[in-house]
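Lab intake sheet, docking and co-folding queue.

SAMPLE TYPE: protein with bound small molecule
LIGAND NAME: NAP
LIGAND FORMAT: SMILES
REQUESTED OUTPUT: full 3D complex as structure tokens
PRIORITY: normal
SUBMITTED BY: R.K., bench team

The fields below were copied directly from the construct record.
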Amino acid sequence: MIKTISYLGLGTMGSGMASNLLKAGYKLTVWNRNVGKCEPFAKKGARVAVTPADAVRDAELVMYSLSNDQAVEEVVFGAKGILNGIKPGQIAVDMSTVRPAMSLREQEAYARRGVDFLDAPVFGSRNEAARAELWIMAAGNQAIFETVKPVLEQLGQTVHYFGKNGNAAAMKLIGNLIVALEMEALAEGLVLAQKAGLDLNTVMEVVKVADFRSPLLVSNGQNILKRDFSPSFALKLMLKDAGLIEKFAGSLQSPIPALRLAKKNLKSAVALGFGEENASALIKALEKEAGVEVKAQ
Ligand SMILES: NC(=O)c1ccc[n+]([C@@H]2O[C@H](COP(=O)([O-])OP(=O)(O)OC[C@H]3O[C@@H](n4cnc5c(N)ncnc54)[C@H](OP(=O)(O)O)[C@@H]3O)[C@@H](O)[C@H]2O)c1
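RESULT FIELD (auto-filled):
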């Protein structure tokens, strides 16, 4: 049974997950590029490591949630990276959203050091991470998955096994393709409703109950009406994911015409300066074009 864990990357998602590992009683080491984010964990008894290589030295299990492929490149493969500290018999789990090709590259590098690896990205956002209610997918060696599963169950409400390395990363991109199109559809619908002079609260009442309802549409729609764009999933991260989906689908010659259009809108919203806001701020690009602001009356 796993007892000692290192968690690297204490951003929106990682901080919630690391807190839940502490609550579950694991002996925890943390590392974050901006060391200030480690302080609350130090106060609760976690060891704060000075480099990724140092972070992984005593842990049976090493987990990380980092922004993108480039961050994984630095934290895993960099001069003071995980690969310079990790030892045979340890297990590494990447919970970031990265290209399946990156997951495979990680798996190969770890295997050369006698380390097992799972790609285990998540669905859910800040609240689900904080409440241990994430939807987690994992891929890699099945026996290793079974060893790590009890830990993942402390972080999420579901844990699905996807077979060989890279498959969970692929599932994450497929899910985010759907998320991006839902967000685009919501934004287009609300702007049109505003232009048509409909009562937006009543519009959202219907979105909440009709057969096309989804929790994602409801929470983002309600926040748009309140003009609350505080980030739980940053717009710039959704644009990053749209780029990953494009590359992944391109590598398999799978058509994604709608995603390409949604990506254009995400790009416009980032160019307008909304990249740090929540992904729902993509509506601001459409609002600008339409000359309206979607707001509850
Ligand atoms: N937020 C969501 O709703 C959500 C949902 C599902 C999946 N995800 C995925 O989960 C991952 C983390 O997302 P998040 O929302 O937690 O992002 P975030 O709040 O922006 O945190 C990103 C983390 O990555 C670190 N980082 C970035 N670049 C780095 C670099 N070059 N070297 C070292 N560390 C670096 C940051 O360190 P600093 O603190 O020093 O900047 C921070 O710890 C992403 O892959 C995202 O796509 C997010």
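REVIEWER NOTE: Residues 4-164 form a domain with the Rossmann fold fold (CATH 3.40.50.720).
SIGN-OFF: pending second check by T.M.
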